[in-house]
């Protein structure tokens, strides 16, 4: 059961978005990285962080960093974590905004999840407390009704007028929503929506797995595409190394999991041996989800894939201009017409599918094609498409307000060191102020992404990936120091290998982003190019077609470039302190171990998901004992 | 200051019946659904309470869930990407 809890906490929209974006390079690079990365890096990190945190009474990653690396390394780790949470929340919100922009059907059905969740919350608190399965079922039925109803409403004139919103309006909506949701009590909105999204997740993943096996969709993308070798793929810029490894973060290796693996989950572990199954196995499951997302993306027609995922600055935004642009790329075997694009839009019930960046709509189209072949054909494609959008939006909104809440607590804790009053989490003004600060931080990044003339996802996603992978290297660095201090030098390579790899990847990626002379890749190169153009009195430059747009690019690239520098500096501080701690451990002969004293288990439980024959036999022997000799469960 | 390593003995700690108390298909299915949805937390709490504090009456389901959400309010679990 804890496996389910841990999986629910780590798997969200992340493993779905990254693989879709990497389909630009063909199916092979992404698949190989997901499989190799998860086995050698991602699952290792999740398992070891979980294990060591458990041996330390469930201390969080930040606390462990302070214990093992000292004050400087620990502080750098905490600041990096806070900044990374802001970026991650903003990018996730950006994915939702891009999926819902100019989509009355999507806006209506996703907005309906709020009253549905409120109803479920009230039902659980006042009408029938504790009936979670029952209320989840009611909520699920209402959710399906909202999706079907959204289709009808989007076809009426008043519905289309009311729910067709531009992306900036939706972004403001999500910002206001994020603040309100984070200060409302958990039982009213967060907890019931969590039940809904768990229901949806299990359903979608199982359904898609079954559908893929039965339908056996044909892979349309080549193993390596034309963009695998170069720097200038339209979906995201940059070469395969290092950017593939930061674009697919969740699914292969994700630093964010270290936050979950430390703190919450270890406090619930029954016995040590189970951590291998929960930590390592949970991550393998996530890789499975990522591979399915990749399958959904590479089975799409490549012309449609590029028309959907390239920024409007390239496609021009209309089916005609997009079709012309895709054909001008000269991709082998690609033949897409404006009719194909508008036909697809009509099938899934959208105005247009051109430049719906962010990965979610692409996945939704892929999923609706696969599910449509299984159930309902073309007539149900609109339903399946919005079902998939709803599924992703639910997760992301949960991640947004849970992320805001966690970040608020972290900020309160840090501010509490200066003004002790802030440590009191029940002090309303403090809680509201800290929530407002965190929402303002990610809201600003979100608005920057939404209004970015270059297409926000394309420029911001690498930053998200780098931030996430830097967190992974921080986590692995902490683990390295722990293992070295225990003087387990023989097994040190298990941690050192992924740490070295991910450090090289993120450092090279950051350096590219900071120093690359190619404007599409380097933030500062773009910044200077636009500045020079403005100084020369030009009124249009590349994708930025006006002076305000050019000024926006100058501003955005300045912020993105500065963030890259800050992330890299923080991560290098943590890694350096960790290597120093490791070297010190080599030199000394003393075994330093901050773990809690060993507590003999007083309970018996199987180590894996299913009890082995020996364990069953043992359980029978335990059961046969008189009551006073039975193993004790719990503390 | 309290030792941060001491885990608050919150009701969410996974404990309680390791499996359905009564055999039979219906009981087994009911147990799975309750565990999967999270309803089983209350069963676990009651089992724990009976075993360790038999002298006091356990909280009612309504009280238990109020306490549980209050605990979640104070300890937000983070979510991943």
Provide an overview of this structure.
The complex is a heterodimer of chains A (635) and B (81). Chain A has 635 residues and is mainly α. Chain A has two domains: 2-103 and 164-587, Amino acid/polyamine transporter I (Up-down Bundle), CATH 1.20.1740; 606-635, no CATH class. Chain A is 71% helix and 0% strand. The two termini of chain A are 19 Å apart. Chain B has a domain at 25-72. In chain B, 26% of the residues are buried. Chain B has 81 residues and is mostly helical. Chain B is built from three helices and no strands. The interface between A and B is large, with 60 and 40 residues.
Which tags fit this structure?
heterodimer, A: 635 residues, mainly alpha, 2 domains, 0% strand, B: 81 residues, 49% helix, disordered N terminus
Radius of gyration of chain B, in Å, reads 15 Å
Residue share in β-strands of chain A: under 5%
Q: What's the order of the H and E elements of chain B? A: HHH
Uncertain runs of chain B are: 1-16
Anisotropy-based shape of chain B: flat
Morphology call of chain A = globular
What is the number of strand segments of chain B?
0
CATH topology of the largest domain in chain A: Amino acid/polyamine transporter I
Oligomer: heterodimer
H and E order of chain A: HHHHHHHHHHHHHHHHHHHHHHHH
Distance linking N and C termini of chain A: 19 Å
Residue windows where pLDDT falls under 50 for at least 5 positions of chain A:
none
The gyration radius over C-alpha positions of chain A equals 25 Å
Largest sheet, strands/sense/barrel of chain A:
none
Alpha-beta classification of chain A? mainly alpha
Count of alpha/pi helices of chain A: 24
The CATH architecture classification of the largest domain in chain A is Up-down Bundle
Q: Which percent bin holds the helix content of chain A?
A: over 70%
CATH C-level of the largest domain in chain A: Mainly Alpha
């Amino acid at each position: 059961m804890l496996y389910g809890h841990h999986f629910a906490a780590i798997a969200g929209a992340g493993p779905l978005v990254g693989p879709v974006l990497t389909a630009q390079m063909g199916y092979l690079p992404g698949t190989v990285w997901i499989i190799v990365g998860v086995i050698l890096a991602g699952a290792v990190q999740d398992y070891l962080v979980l294990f060591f945190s458990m041996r330390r009474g469930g201390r969080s990653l930040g606390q462990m960093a302070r214990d093992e690396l000292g004050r400087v390394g620990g502080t750098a780790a905490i600041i990096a974590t806070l900044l990374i949470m802001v970026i991650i929340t903003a990018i996730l919100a950006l994915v939702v905004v891009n999926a819902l922009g100019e989509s009355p059907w999507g806006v209506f059905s996703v907005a309906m999840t709020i009253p549905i969740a409120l109803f479920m919350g009230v039902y659980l608190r006042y009408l029938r407390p504790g009936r979670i399965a029952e209320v989840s079922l009611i909520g699920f039925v209402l959710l399906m009704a909202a999706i079907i109803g959204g289709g009808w409403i989007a076809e009426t004139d008043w519905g289309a007028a009311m729910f067709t919103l531009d992306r900036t309006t939706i972004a403001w909506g999500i910002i206001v929503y994020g603040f309100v949701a984070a200060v409302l009590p958990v039982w009213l909105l967060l907890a019931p929506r969590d039940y809904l999204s768990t229901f949806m997740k299990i359903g979608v993943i199982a359904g898609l797995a079954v559908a893929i096996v039965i339908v056996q969709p044909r892979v349309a993308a080549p193993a390596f595409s034309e963009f695998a070798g170069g720097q200038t793929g339209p979906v995201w810029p940059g070469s395969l190394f290092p950017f593939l490894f930061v674009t697919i973060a969740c699914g292969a290796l994700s630093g964010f999991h270290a936050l979950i693996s430390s703190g919450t989950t270890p406090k619930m572990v029954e016995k040590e041996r189970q951590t291998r199954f929960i930590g390592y196995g949970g991550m393998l499951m996530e890789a499975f989800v990522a591979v399915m997302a990749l399958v959904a993306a590479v089975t799409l027609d490549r012309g449609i894939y590029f028309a959907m995922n390239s920024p409007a600055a390239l496609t021009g935004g209309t089916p005609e201009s997009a079709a012309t642009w895709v054909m001008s790329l000269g991709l082998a075997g690609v033949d897409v017409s404006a009719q194909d694009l508008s036909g697809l839009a009509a099938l899934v019930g959208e105005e247009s599918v051109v430049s719906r960046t962010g990965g979610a709509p692409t996945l939704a189209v892929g999923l609706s094609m696969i599910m449509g072949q299984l159930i309902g054909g073309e007539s149900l494609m609109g339903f399946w498409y919005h079902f998939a959008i709803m599924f992703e939006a639910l997760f992301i909104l949960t991640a947004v307000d849970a992320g805001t809440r966690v970040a608020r607590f972290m900020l309160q804790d840090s501010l509490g060191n200066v003004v002790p009053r802030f440590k009191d989490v029940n002090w309303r003004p403090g809680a509201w102020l800290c929530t407002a600060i965190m929402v303002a931080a990610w809201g600003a990044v979100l608005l920057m992404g939404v209004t970015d003339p270059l297409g926000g996802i394309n420029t911001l996603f690498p930053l998200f990936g780098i931030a996430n992978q830097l967190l992974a290297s921080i986590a692995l660095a902490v683990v390295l120091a722990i293992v070295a201090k225990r003087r387990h030098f023989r097994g040190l390579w298990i941690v050192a290998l992924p740490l070295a790899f991910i450090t090289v990847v993120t450092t090279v990626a950051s350096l590219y982003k900071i120093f690359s002379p190619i404007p599409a890749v380097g933030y500062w190169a773009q910044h200077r190019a636009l500045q020079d153009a403005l100084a020369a009195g030009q009124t249009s430059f590349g994708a930025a077609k006006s002076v305000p747009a050019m000024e926006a690019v100058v501003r955005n690239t300045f912020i993105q470039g500065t963030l890259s520098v800050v992330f890299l500096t923080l991560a290098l501080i943590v890694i350096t302190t960790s290597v120093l701690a490791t070297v010190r451990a080599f030199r000394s002969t003393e075994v330093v171990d901050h773990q809690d004293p060993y507590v003999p288990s007083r309970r018996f439980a199987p180590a894996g998901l299913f009890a082995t024959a020996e364990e069953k036999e043992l359980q029978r022997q335990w059961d046969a004992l008189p009551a006073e000799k039975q193993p004790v469960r719990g503390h | 200051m309290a030792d941060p390593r001491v885990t608050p003995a919150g009701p969410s700690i996974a404990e309680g019946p390791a499996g359905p108390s009564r055999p039979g298909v219906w009981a087994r299915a009911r147990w799975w659904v309750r565990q999967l949805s999270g309803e089983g937390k209350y069963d676990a709490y009651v089992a724990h309470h009976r075993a360790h504090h038999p002298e006091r009456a356990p909280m009612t389901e309504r009280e238990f869930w109020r306490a549980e959400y209050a605990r979640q309010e104070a300890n937000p679990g983070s979510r991943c990407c």
